[in-house]
Amino acid sequence: MKNFIWDFDGTLFNSYPHISKAFCMMLDNHNREYDVKEVTDALLVNFQYAFDKYSLTESEIKEFRAYTDTVELKPEIMPYPDAEKILKYVSEHKGVNYIYTHRNTDTLVFYLKRYDMLKYFKAYVTSDYGFQKKPSPDGIEYIIKEYQLDKNATIMIGDREIDVLSGKNADIYGGLVKRDGRLENTKADYVFKTLDDVMFLT
After folding, report:
1. pLDDT by position in tens, the chain (length 202)
2. To pair with 7 at 20 to 30 A between CA atoms, which of 25, 120, 129, 130?
């Protein structure tokens, strides 16, 4: 494998505690009842699933997203311990790293620069590009076309099935990161318990 397209939240950076806190703060503001674990589990499926589960209005969704973009909100978003190691490994073994995320460009670049990890990526596609959300292949297809990638040497890696499906829908490989080790139905070509497991693909 030569080209690695990475999801950001939950794959390279441990952001779910931060995102869950943001969601719960929004619910608190509107006197909504909730269970923290149920909130987190819903967000782990995908944001739209959580929005539907709690019947959020457009203004509530906007409020939630504003909280997620607040870098001072604790707990802090931080890279997983194995993230920089695999990105550096890919780069040193003639691979190329990209990011495809629903996060906006400003916050993505903020976190990558904060931890000196921007240097590992050739390019990234964020929500600011206006593509349909995953599992749509639009963002991936843009990267493939823009950088003339060989689909047979390209993989999309994320922690949710929508990441896998966005890759499969773009006719490339799909990789699923499952740090908790729980098995689930997936169309992924590869399942990784840690990012170290990705090394065998290079």
Report:
1. 999 999 999 999 999 999 999 999 999 999 999 999 999 999 988 899 999 999 999 999 999 999 999 999 999 999 999 999 999 999 999 999 999 999 999 999 999 999 999 999 999 999 999 999 999 999 999 999 999 999 999 999 999 999 999 999 999 999 999 988 776 789 999 999 999 999 999 8
2. 25
Contact 90, 39 (CB under 8 A): no
Cβ atoms of 119 and 53 closer than 8 Å: no
How would you classify the pairing of strands 96-100 and 121-125? Answer: parallel
For the record, the structure tokens of 174 come out as: 């799909």
pTM of the predicted protein model: 0.92
d(CA 86, CA 201): 11
Name the pairing type of β-strands 78-79 and 13-14: antiparallel
Rounded Cα distance, 30 and 18, in Å: 19
